[in-house]
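Supplementary Methods, section 5.1.

A reviewer requested that the exact input to the structure prediction be made available. We therefore reproduce it here, unchanged from the version used in the analyses.
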Amino acid sequence: MFTGLDKDGRMQYEEPGRKITIQDVFRHTAGFGYGGSDDSPVNKAYSEAGIDFQKMESLKELVDKLATVPLLYHPGEQWVYSVAHDVQAYLVEYFSGMPFDKYLKTKMFQPLGMKDAVFGIPKGYEGRYTTCYGPADGGGLSAIDKPESSNYARYTGHPFGGLGLSSTALDYYLFSQMLLNGGELNGVRLLGRKTVELMTSNHLPPEVPDLGSMFPGTGYGLGVSVLIDPAQSGNLGSAGQFGWGGAATTHVVIDPEEDMVSIFITQLMPGNMDPINQFKTLVYQSIIE
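The structure derived from this sequence is encoded token-by-token as follows.
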């Protein structure tokens, strides 16, 4: 685990307090980072190890390289959103013996009728992809990622766990409704009801009370955020609602108490919580019975 730099700028380490568990991987408490463009020591280590989704060939390559870089913190002591989703995807491959994309297609997409859930930008899909926008110099927005030139096309043949998968709003609704129903949709059961209950419970350890200033009053389950305290979150909602968002200002809220799925999708990079929170407020204000 990384503990700091010595007087000569060399990284210092110590043994992690305990081993990483699969639960840590699911709840983002394993000690992983995400790399990035800043020059922090651990991010530099990720870059030097070649942890770059535009260059890596497989999930196996990712986990092999991840094993060569230091942890950010002792497992279980912090919550940091990370490459843990990609480690989860590797575990799917390892335990199932199937490529991750094939597993999802045969075990989830086809059974649920998710006809447009694909990795990357397959041939023939180019015209259906949206342009992503970001802040423009001087105000307004400008196109920053167009389908015809998008780096996303690489993921057609390189499926990862935390990026690369695309679908329509309808497909995502089918997936979300399955979770709201406790693992079943239209007579097809993918998960047991108690499995979904466990997945959508708060799994953060006592020393990590919530996700911090960006998501106060919010815990984390096995792959989804879980609202613990609506008052602490500063918005309308229900204790126990769960979901997560995406990089381009997208979000899903699944609320068992209100029997409701609400999906917010834009094409704005980087992600902006302001319109998402306004959307949540409007959705819950509309409930009058």
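The chain has a mean pLDDT of 96. These observations are discussed further in the main text.
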